[in-house]
């Protein structure tokens, strides 16, 4: 059975059995929190449990490496919407140990694109248009430093109110242990 067919078949039973009822909540985050985390599959259930977050407690944004790289990209837009339209009062960036973005090789990723049918002409056209794939795909060397940089992008954003605490954490994807890298209440680096 194809994955989509499997999901739809399961969904029909899910709706039929009213399993959705235990997940009902408001669109506003109960804990008034926005979490930016990595898309790593190990964090799907572990991260909310380790942070004591239930369905409806937080707006959770997922991106490769928990990177907030552009002050006017979609992650920042989502944070700003959560603050102004959805009553979020705090932001937390959560990176994790053993992140796949550490030491990612943009050249190797580009080779994989070409091997899967993306033409070298397309790659060249992007470069000609000013999109440097090596910069765009580049990872980072330190998870903690990446968290600090992402926290800094959010804190320095001209549309983020000064009173919004922006925290930086690193989670262990095996145990769920959280290390505080940046304390948004004090603005201090703690690790």
UniProtKB/TrEMBL annotation:
Binds 1 zinc ion per subunit. It catalyses: hydrogencarbonate + H(+) = CO2 + H2O. Its EC number is 4.2.1.1. SMART domains: Pro_CA. It is an enzyme of class 4 (lyase). GO terms for molecular function: carbonate dehydratase activity; zinc ion binding. SUPFAM superfamilies: beta-carbonic anhydrase, cab. Keywords: Metal-binding, Zinc. Pfam families: Pro_CA. CDD domains: beta_CA_cladeD. InterPro entries: Carbonic_anhydrase, Carbonic_anhydrase_sf. Zn(2+) binds at residues 38, 40, 96, 99. Its cofactor is Zn(2+). Belongs to the beta-class carbonic anhydrase family. This is carbonic anhydrase. It comes from Paenibacillus thalictri.
């Amino acid at each position: 059975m194809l994955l989509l067919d499997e999901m739809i078949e399961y969904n029909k039973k899910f709706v039929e059995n009213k399993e959705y009822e235990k997940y009902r909540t408001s669109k506003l985050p109960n804990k008034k929190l926005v979490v930016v985390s990595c898309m790593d599959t190990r964090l799907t259930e572990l991260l909310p449990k380790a942070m004591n977050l239930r369905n409806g407690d937080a707006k959770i944004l997922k991106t490769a490496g928990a990177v907030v790289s552009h002050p006017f990209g979609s992650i920042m837009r989502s944070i700003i919407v959560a603050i102004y339209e959805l009553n979020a009062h705090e932001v937390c960036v959560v990176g994790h140990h053993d992140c796949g973005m550490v030491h990612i090789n943009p050249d190797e990723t580009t080779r994989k694109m070409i091997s899967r049918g993306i033409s070298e002409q397309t790659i060249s056209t992007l470069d000609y248009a000013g999109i440097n794939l090596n910069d765009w795909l580049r990872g980072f060397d330190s998870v903690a430093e990446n968290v600090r940089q992402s926290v800094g992008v959010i804190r320095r954003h001209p549309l983020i109110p000064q009173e919004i605490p922006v925290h930086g954490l690193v989670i262990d994807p095996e145990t769920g242990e959280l290390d505080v890298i940046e304390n948004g209440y004090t603005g201090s680096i703690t690790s």
